[in-house]
Amino acid sequence: MVSYNDKTKYEVSRQVMIEHHLKGRGIHDKRVLEAMSEIPRQAFVPAKYTAQSYDDNPLPIGVGQTISQPYIVALMTQSLKLTGTEEVLEIGTGSGYQTAILATLAKQVYTVERFHELSESAQAVLAKLRIENIDYAIGDGSCGWQEEKQFDRIIITAAVPHIPEPLENQLKEGGLLVAPVGGQWAQDLIIAEKKNGQLQQETICGCRFVKLIGKHGYPE
Ligand code: SAM
Questions:
Q1: Does the annotation mark 68 as catalytic?
Q2: What separation in Å is there between the alpha carbon of 75 and the centre of ligand 1?
């Protein structure tokens, strides 16, 4: 991990990411662009990959998992239309980078990760960055948040064969859910709105994510 005092080292490459990879590909939500200008992605990337922190691709974070491509993080976040008042459930904490962006843009983030080592590392980085409006859980996020609760927004950051029913049930009426849905090698990124108790889905684009392993995801 890089020094947290070294705040300016990556500013130029972060601005290239904003202008070229995000604005240049249609990310227009000013709050999303501001959050991604502020959050140091290099803090979430393993030391041997920090030089590639602002390249527009996923990077390994250990245990066979990846930190998502910046464009996809921006696209998924933009599709959630966050205004600052929302409670957001995130399934797949991973490195914690997407969590940091969500926490900057929403009231509270509840995030679930299957691997304790990833959750603990993400918690350490987010604590150092003093991002505190986050509740963490370790376990199978395909079963939803551990307590009975409904959320304004849900984001699934790993591929699911279908929207897990417990997550559909934990989405508030009028709420939005974004997820990569499809086969284990390729998925559609979908945005769904809950209307009259039913999810109305639209496809945003094709994508490729690691699998969500769990009772309502893929088998191990
Ligand atoms: N958005 C994250 C980031 O910025 O680093 C990347 C998420 S990574 C593509 C997907 C994550 O989902 C992995 O960390 C993986 O361990 C986690 N995951 C897979 N199955 C899960 C499950 N059933 N419950 C919770 N997390 C799960």
A1: yes
A2: 17
